[in-house]
Amino acid sequence: METIKVSTSQHVDIDYPVAGLGERIVARLIDLGVFLGVLIVSLLTLGSDHVGPNVYTGFFILFSICYVFYNLFYEIFLNGQSIGKKIMKIKVISIDGSQASVGQYFIRWIFRLVDFVLTAQVGGLFCVILSDNKQRIGDIVAGTTVIKTSPQTTLENIAFHPAEEDYVPVFGTIHQLGDRDVELLHEVLSTYYKTGNYDLIHAMAVKISALLSITVPAGMHELDFLTTVAKDYNHITSQVE
């Protein structure tokens, strides 16, 4: 599975899986469905004998403008997500893992002409299939890609995994933790790697440091602190057993 490394505001690197063709197609179909629903409701609302042709003309002009600029508007103001992308939990980001700029959104929007209109809807699809980072032509030119917003969880991210035989514990007061404390730590880490909610990590780091009567070492991220505590506990309990 292709992944891209994203650095959070707390300078923690997380690997996010790149969105596949299926998620992107479904997201686009959802967006088209939204427009179709708006069109049907609007036509039913305007279906009155008192509505003149000028009203219909004005409506279709407005509808066309909204349709053309829909993706650009939503990706700029919803941080890389349209309604369909938000439902499918995918978003546009810069290929270096940072948030895409307005210029990048604009470039990939312009290239929708190449990806879809001028190539009968298949240019972008084939490019997503063949490119390493699942990029359509507009993504390649703009330097963007589309990722799943749920980060990939690996064995190293989970609190309970076998301790290394030559592992040396870092914190000497780790014995002050109980099984329930570490179970909660595991739940917090698992939830974080699914949601990216760093507030959970901060709150748990405060709780664990208080239980251990220590402070988080200078230069150590709170996420690293918690994973180190988990490793220390696993190592100590495995030695006792």
Quick one: overall form? elongated
Strand order of the largest sheet: 1-2
Strand content: 5-15%
Q: What's the total number of strands?
A: 4
What order do the helices and strands follow? EEHHHEHHHHEHHH
Poorly predicted parts: none
Number of helices: 10
Give the domain tally: 2
How is the main sheet built? 2 strands, antiparallel
Helix proportion: 55-70%
Helix/strand/pairing category: mainly alpha
Could you characterize what this model shows?
With 241 residues, the chain is mostly helical. The protein has two domains: 3-148, no CATH class; 155-240, no CATH class. 57% of the residues lie in helices and 8% in strands. It has ten helices and four strands, in the order ββαααβααααβααα. The protein has helices at 21-46, 53-77, 83-88, 102-110, 112-117, 123-130, 137-142, 179-195, 198-212, 222-240; strands at 3-7, 13-17, 90-94, 144-148. It has a two-stranded antiparallel sheet with strand order 1-2. Helix 8 packs antiparallel against helix 9 (198-212), helix 8 packs across helix 10 and helix 9 packs across helix 10 (222-240). The protein is elongated. The model has no long low-confidence stretch (mean pLDDT 85).
Keyphrases for this structure?
241 residues, mainly alpha, 2 domains, two-stranded antiparallel ribbon, 10 helices, elongated
Set down the secondary structure blueprint:
Blueprint (H helix, E strand, L loop, with lengths): L2 E5 L5 E5 L3 H26 L6 H25 L5 H6 L1 E5 L7 H9 L1 H6 L5 H8 L6 H6 L1 E5 L30 H17 L2 H15 L9 H19 L1
Antiparallel strand pairs: 1-2, 3-4
